[in-house]
């Protein structure tokens, strides 16, 4: 059920983004009286889910959710309609229009992506406000994965700053480490301030970590208290098979008690043999339940951790949300652009993901706020990626148009055809590479 919800959210988000992106090209073309022959959401090799013609344009929906397209008359695009290009240019064709009009038509989709993201962020802030956990309010310190433990952090450390710069939002710390590559981290440990030198290999290790399968735990979270209560069982649950009930409360594991959730996890992970001895409280009775563990060393329980942190909440009026939402959009654009520098590290290529990775970022339960936040983020990614100067992308067309504006000379049509074909093969390679990475992650 969780997977189905993720898929539905992903397809709805992708449909919105593709339709509005292509609508940006469509509207710009219509403004300059350029004929649009086709408008399709998703690609339609061999057949379409539906199609109809109204006026000069055929509208439809394909079955392959790799994007969408508008076929603009008189333009070398993914349709590769070369026969049309052999005929004399007609007044309603793309190639007959001034370079500045063609440039606006080509950036129309990207502009809509950015405007959509800004609009979504404005409405999110107006409807829900902004909520985050100030770093100093993670009062029990941090819980770390082994990667950061090896880097020198300890569970329970309270993070003060990185390179002596405070990060206001606790959940932005992992991203800050990845993007800013700080050399030191300042923490409070057992009442004493400590300066920890981060290893130079940390960024590469973090990128490698992100490529190793989907079932990872978080690198860094607030340290949550845990009283042993159960939220629900997983679908495959050794604990439920052993007779544990949802009303049970876990008291001890292998004779050891715990206060924090990371301690509870460590007790399970450090268990050596195949039988885990769990003491639970059921009503007024204390029971000992032996649980047969599989190779994954999990008991199949979703814990009900205690989230007693004081979150910062900012509420916005509609007019106050406008500048704040636009600023949030620009912050995301800058953040995404910064990620390109990570490709200096070879491990970054292994972390590239395709459709499974994108779908997996959506929550397993339908959450409209999360849905719109992720849709806005994907809209920015789609906008930035389409601006890359790669033939077959909008940015490739923009690059050639800028060349024409500067030199006042159109690129050779044969060159444009070959560039389009080369760009399409390159994008196909990237698509296969990203999705093969995803398939490999399923088996890691």
Give a short account of the largest sheet. Answer: 4 strands, mixed
* Distance between the ends: 22 Å
Strands in their spatial order, largest beta sheet? 2-3-1-4
- The chain-level mean pLDDT equals 88
Tally the helices. Answer: 14
Percent of sequence in beta strands: 15-25%
Radius of gyration: 27 Å
Structure, explained:
There is one protein chain. The protein is built from 14 helices and 16 strands. The protein is of the alpha+beta class. It folds into three domains: 2-125 and 374-442, no CATH class; 135-221, Pdz3 Domain, CATH 2.30.42; 230-303, PDZ domain (Pdz3 Domain). The strands form six sheets. The chain has a four-stranded mixed beta sheet, with helices on one face. Strands 7-8-9 form a three-stranded antiparallel beta sheet, with no helix packed on it. Strand 13 and strand 14 (285-292) form a beta hairpin. Helix 3 (99-128) runs antiparallel to helix 12 (368-386). The longest helix has 30 residues, at 2-31. The two termini are 22 Å apart. 25% of the residues are buried. The model has no long low-confidence stretch (mean pLDDT 88).
């Amino acid at each position: 059920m969780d997977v189905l919800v993720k898929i539905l959210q992903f397809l709805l988000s992708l449909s919105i983004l593709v339709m509005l992106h292509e609508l940006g090209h469509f509207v710009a073309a219509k403004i300059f009286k350029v004929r649009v022959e086709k408008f399709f959401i998703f690609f339609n090799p061999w057949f379409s889910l539906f199609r109809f013609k109204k006026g000069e344009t055929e509208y439809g929906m394909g079955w392959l959710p790799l994007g969408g397209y508008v076929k603009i008359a008189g333009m070398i695009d993914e349709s590769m309609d070369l026969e049309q290009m052999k005929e004399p240019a007609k007044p309603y064709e793309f190639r007959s229009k001034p370079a500045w009009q063609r440039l606006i038509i080509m950036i129309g989709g990207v502009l809509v992506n950015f405007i959509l993201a800004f609009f979504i962020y404005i409405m999110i802030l107006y409807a829900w406000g902004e909520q985050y956990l100030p770093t100093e309010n993670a009062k029990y310190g941090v819980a770390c994965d082994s990667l950061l433990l090896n880097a020198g952090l300890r569970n329970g450390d309270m993070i003060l700053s990185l390179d002596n710069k405070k990060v206001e939002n606790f959940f932005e710390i992992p991203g800050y480490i990845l993007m800013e590559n700080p050399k030191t981290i300042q923490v409070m440990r057992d009442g004493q301030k400590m300066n920890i030198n981060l290893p130079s290999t940390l960024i590469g290790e973090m990128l490698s970590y992100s490529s190793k399968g989907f079932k990872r735990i978080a690198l860094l979270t607030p340290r949550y208290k845990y009283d042993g209560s159960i939220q629900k069982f997983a679908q495959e649950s050794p604990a439920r098979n052993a007779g544990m009930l949802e009303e049970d409360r876990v008291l001890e594991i292998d004779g050891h008690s715990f206060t924090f959730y990371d301690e509870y996890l460590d007790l399970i992970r450090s268990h050596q043999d195949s039988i885990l001895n769990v003491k639970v409280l059921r009503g007024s009775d204390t029971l000992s339940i032996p649980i047969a563990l599989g190779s994954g060393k999990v008991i199949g329980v979703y814990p009900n951790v205690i989230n007693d942190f004081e979150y910062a909440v900012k509420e916005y009026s509609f007019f106050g949300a406008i500048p704040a939402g636009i600023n949030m959009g620009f912050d995301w654009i800058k953040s995404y652009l910064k990620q390109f520098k990570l490709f200096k590290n070879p491990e970054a290529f292994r972390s590239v993901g395709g459709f499974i990775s994108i779908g997996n970022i959506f929550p397993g339960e339908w959450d409209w706020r999360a849905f719109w936040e992720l849709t806005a983020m994907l809209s920015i990614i789609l906008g930035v990626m389409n601006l890359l100067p790669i033939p077959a992308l909008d940015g490739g067309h923009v690059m050639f148009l800028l060349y024409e504006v500067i030199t006042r000379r159109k690129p050779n049509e044969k060159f444009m055809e070959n560039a389009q074909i080369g760009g399409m093969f390159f994008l196909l390679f990237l698509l296969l590479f990203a999705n093969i990475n995803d398939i490999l992650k399923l088996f890691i």
